[in-house]
Write a structure and sequence with these properties.
Distance between the termini: 70 Å
Number of strands: 24
Largest sheet: 6 strands, antiparallel, barrel
Order of helices and strands: EEHEEEHEEEEEEEEEHEEHEHEEEEHEEE
CATH superfamily of the largest domain: PDZ domain
Strand order of the largest sheet: 3-4-5-8-7-6
CATH class of the largest domain: Mainly Beta
Structural class: mainly beta
Strand content: 35-45%
Shape: elongated
Length: about 350
């Protein structure tokens, strides 16, 4: 007897036996790995930290990235390269290159670095689209978790439309959830569909223990494509900006302030000479205690934006980010005293941090 039959389609030979019969899915995995793994790189970042005696001490971190252009541009996560003094990229063939940061956007956790490598040494990972993803479709994560070489893990898209809060505190929309294992060091590597197109950039896991428990997240590739050109051209992505500080209006605060609406967004502060100030939006004038909360009152309450009712501050932020600096948005507000007004606001460019 030369082997063992398992199920209806899998043949496992003993040593020296004949070739293994593979499923179509297995062949797809192998084909994708052999074609795309050479385009997934290891990124080592060196960050300077201070020890107990305030001496500068280098600390190294590692992540992954995808070659997206034959000129040497590599897509990765912002948190992989954040605060790095030195970046080194290792290709699948083992060659190492000093990389330079081209652009980074902490709000989407996307960054681009570049290496000067010969075109013949670079395998480009093709970009797909994350617009029409379906829960249940195949998802493949390729990365270089520990700098020991490329790895492939498979799973499915577990959910779509998730929201994550980035390290800058802003919300990243339409995040992909997958059960394909995303291990330490996979951050910045591609999430691939069964056709071999990048659909996401692996970014985080949810785990109470720090180990993978089958809940991983990837930034949608369409989000990356939206900011990519500006990151390469300018080094940053220009976000639209209203020039206000906002707070969600709760029902108890609305009752205490005797407002005609129990939902909306309080304008806490208006930046002088900013877009909101020029549009005539008013910020708070005094602080009062409502229950156990300190609330800045006297400012306008935004209740609609471009005809859409808004009930929390995050909605205003999300709606604003659908536009570009220079675009005009229409606001319906309730002014202190109860008067309703309509204001037209031209968005500015968010100041650099």
């Amino acid at each position: 007897m030369t082997g063992l039959i398992l199920g209806l389609f899998c043949f496992i030979p003993w040593a020296g036996g004949s070739a293994v019969a593979m499923t179509e899915d297995e062949r797809n995995n192998i084909d994708l790995y052999e074609r795309l793994a050479p385009g997934v790189v290891n990124i080592t970042s060196t960050v300077m930290e201070h020890d107990f005696f305030f001496n500068a001490v280098p600390r190294q971190g590692a992540g992954s990235g995808s070659v997206i252009d034959s000129r040497g541009y590599i897509l990765t996560n912002h948190h992989v390269i954040e605060d790095a003094r030195k970046l080194e990229v290792t290709l699948a063939d083992g060659n190492k290159y000093t990389a330079r940061l081209i652009g980074s956007d902490p709000d989407t956790d996307i960054a681009v670095v570049k290496i000067d490598a010969k075109k013949a040494n670079l395998v480009v990972i093709p970009m797909g689209s994350s617009e029409n993803l379906k829960v249940g479709q195949k998802a493949i994560a390729i990365g270089n978790p520990f700098g020991l070489g490329q790895t492939l893990t498979t799973g499915v898209i577990s959910s779509i439309g998730r929201t994550l809060r980035s390290s800058s505190g802003t919300l990243v929309e339409d995040v992909i959830q997958t059960d394909a294992s995303i291990n330490p060091g996979n951050s910045g590597g591609p999430l691939i569909d069964s056709s071999g197109k990048m659909i996401g950039i692996n970014t985080a896991i949810f785990s109470p223990t720090g180990a993978n428990v089958g809940i991983g997240f990837a930034i949608p590739v369409d989000t990356a494509k939206r900011v990519l050109d500006e990151l390469i051209e300018k080094g940053y992505y220009a976000y639209p900006w209203m020039g206000v500080s906002l707070m969600t209006l709760s029902a108890d605060v609305a009752r205490a302030l005797k407002l005609p609406s129990d939902t909306g967004v309080l304008v806490v502060e208006v930046v002088p000479r900013g877009p909101a100030d020029r549009a005539g939006l008013r910020g708070g004038t005094s602080r009062v205690q409502v229950g156990n909360k300190i609330v800045v009152v006297g400012g306008d309450v935004i209740v609609e934006m471009n005809g859409r009712r808004v009930t929390d501050a995050d909605t205003v932020i999300r709606e604003t980010r659908k536009f570009r600096p220079g675009d005009r948005v229409e606001l319906e507000i309730i002014r202190s005293g109860g008067a309703r007004k309509f204001l037209s606001l031209v968005l500015g460019e968010q100041p650099k941090r």
